[in-house]
Amino acid sequence: MSDHRKGQLLLLAAAALWSIGGALAKWIALPGPTMACYRALFAALALLPFLWLRGARPSFRPAMLAMACCFIAMNLTYVTAITKTTAANAIILQYTAPIWMFLGSVFWLGEPMERRSLVALALGMAGVVIILVGRDPADTLGIVLGLIAGFFYAGVVLFLRLLRDHDPFWLTFLNHAAAGLIGLALLWAVPSLGPVRVAGDDLFGLVLYGGVQMALPYVIFSMAMKRVTPQEAGILTLLEPVLNPIITFLTVGEVPAASTVVGGTVILGAVALRYVGGDGGDDDATDSESARPPAVPSPGDRNAARSV
Predict the structure, then answer these.
(1) CA–CA dist 101, 58 (Å, integer)
(2) For residue 299, what pLDDT is reported?
(3) What does the alpha-carbon distance between residue 44 and residue 161 come to, in Å, rounded to a whole number?
(4) Which pick of 97, 188, 210, 286 has the fewest CB atoms within 10 Å?
(5) Treating both helix axes as pointing N-terminal to C-terminal, what angle do 282-289 and 140-162 enclose, rounded to 10 degrees?
(6) What are phi and psi of 290, to 5 degrees?
(7) SS3 per residue for the chain
(8) Cα torsion at 176, 82, 104, 166 (round to 10°)?
(9) Cis (ω within 30 of 0) for the bond into 293?
(10) CA-angle at 130, arms to 126 and 134, nearest 5°
(11) What confidence score (pLDDT) does residue 123 get?
(12) CA 138, CA 135: separation in Å to the nearest integer?
């Protein structure tokens, strides 16, 4: 088997593992803040051995504080969104991140505006409108939180671009450790957010959520990025938002609304447009790698940002 084919299979494996997040969240069924906290903590713990094996050196820049704040907000809003609406709505709306990344790169980083990105932006916004118009009123809070999660996801990726000279594994560990520890502090300070103590099946589910659904695919994704281009990674990892609602339906019977299917297809088409035909420049690399850990604008931004 060729090295390139191995990279493709590794990417598909990472996307498949990420896609079980919705089903795990529905199965655990704890309040969003509690799941977000322990998911991040167990992911950080699972990444520690790999951090040591890579010989990654801890580093610090003030921008890391802003990056961690964006990650904490993204993690909290995304996981809570799953508890307030369908898993399909939550994951698809988090995938609006490339829209915010494009706007941020143009108006904040001063990068040039190009036509393909403008078309993708228009398509993505159209998909969001379709989901909003066809929503069940009971899903409104979850949909809003999903959009907010996409916004902060983009913020993490943009800060990761500024920190591209730092080890992506270290940045990923830092994000998850900060989210877990700050989450614990919030749960202690505001008991109404959710329980601090969990046990039994819930604890086992959270270990899977953090270690298997978050940390392990980040490691697999990083291995794959040595063998494929960022554009190909961006396309193949779109398997995640496709599989996520399917696996959730098969495991807990949750059925996405028709407007979610239509609007989600438009949004994912817009995201695909940002990857297909890219010139391999930094902009494209940032989008594809800001994934889950997927990780990075080098192969690290999107991955280190990943919360899904």
Answers:
(1) 27
(2) 34
(3) 21
(4) 188
(5) 130
(6) -75, 10
(7) CCHHHHHHHHHHHHHHHHCCHHHHHHHHCCCHHHHHHHHHHHHHHHHHHHHHHHCCCCCCCHHHHHHHHHHHHHHHHHHHHHHHCCHHHHHHHHCCHHHHHHHHHHHCCCCCCCHHHHHHHHHHHHHHHHHHHCCCHHHHHHHHHHHHHHHHHHHHHHHHHHCCCCCHHHHHHHHHHHHHHHHHHHHHHCHHHCCCCCCHHHHHHHHHHHHHHHHHHHHHHHHHCCCCCHHHHHHHCCHHHHHHHHHHHHHHCCCCCHHHHHHHHHHHHHHHHHHCCCCCCHHHHHHHHCCCCCECCCCCHHHHHCCC
(8) 20
(9) yes
(10) 170
(11) 84
(12) 8
Place of tokens 């447009």: 273
Where residue 85 falls (left for φ over 0; alpha for ψ -120 to 50; beta otherwise) is: beta
- CA 193, 145, 83: angle at the middle one, nearest 5? 55
Q: How far apart are CA 272 and CA 274, in angstroms?
A: 5
Site of tokens 């490691």: 219
Listed as ranges, residues in the chain with pLDDT below 50 are: 278-302
Instruction: Please check whether residue 134 is in contact with residue 256, taking contact to mean a CB–CB distance below 8 angstroms.
Output: no
Domain ranges for the chain: 3-305
pLDDT digits (tens, 9 = 90+) for 100-121: 877 777 777 677 777 777 787 8
Q: How far is Cα 261 from Cα 239, in angstroms, rounded to an integer?
A: 15
Q: Tokens at residue 176, please?
A: 């998850």
Residue 284 is encoded by which pair of tokens? 């494209």
What is residue 101's predicted lDDT score, i.e. its pLDDT?
79
pTM listed for this prediction: 0.82
Position 40: which residue type? A
Who contacts 191 (Cβ-Cβ below 8 Å, separation ≥6)? none
d(CA 57, CA 68): 18
Amino acid of residue 288: S
The position carrying tokens 């393909």 is 116
